[in-house]
Amino acid sequence: MSWRKKWERDWADVRYCSAACRRRGVSPTDRALEASILTLLDARADDATICPSEAARQVGGEQWRELMEPARRAARRLVEAGRVQITQAGHVVDPSTAKGPIRIRRTP
């Protein structure tokens, strides 16, 4: 979900970016991406990170590029649940404002 200026006052209450997102909800593919992220992190050292593309490749196979944004959304849902952190250049960042490449790591 991308930051919108009109949400500034109510950011804590925003759950969906639009009515279309609200109707769509979380699909089985979205759940598979979340599980893939957690499985990949389980297989690594406690302080290791993964790229969302690794989860997208695991779930999507040859069509993994289509799953890049859904993988980033899955990571944001896991951040909200307190299971992972999103980092850039080794520093934890706010997932709603992160632009560019991100890494995902377990919450310590």
Structure description:
This protein is α+β, with helices and mostly antiparallel strands and 108 residues long. The protein has one domain (26-106): Arc Repressor Mutant, subunit A, CATH 1.10.10. It contains four helices and four strands. It has helices spanning 19-24, 28-42, 52-60, 68-80; strands spanning 49-50, 84-88, 91-92, 103-106. A four-stranded antiparallel β-sheet has the order 1-4-2-3. Strand 2 and strand 3 (91-92) form a beta hairpin. Helix 2 (28-42) crosses helix 3 (52-60), helix 2 (28-42) packs across helix 4 and helix 3 (52-60) packs across helix 4 (68-80). The longest helix has 15 residues, at 28-42. The two termini are 25 Å apart. The mean pLDDT is 86.
Instruction: State the end-to-end CA separation.
Output: 25 Å
Report the C-alpha radius of gyration, rounded.
Answer: 14 Å
Q: Could you spell the SSE succession in H and E letters?
A: HHEHHEEE
- Spatial strand order of the main sheet: 1-4-2-3
CATH homologous superfamily assignment = Winged helix-like DNA-binding domain superfamily/Winged helix DNA-binding domain
Query: Roughly what percent helix?
Result: 25-40%
The CATH architecture name reads Orthogonal Bundle
CATH topology name, in short, is Arc Repressor Mutant, subunit A
Low-confidence stretches: none
CATH class: Mainly Alpha
How many structural domains does the protein architecture include?
1
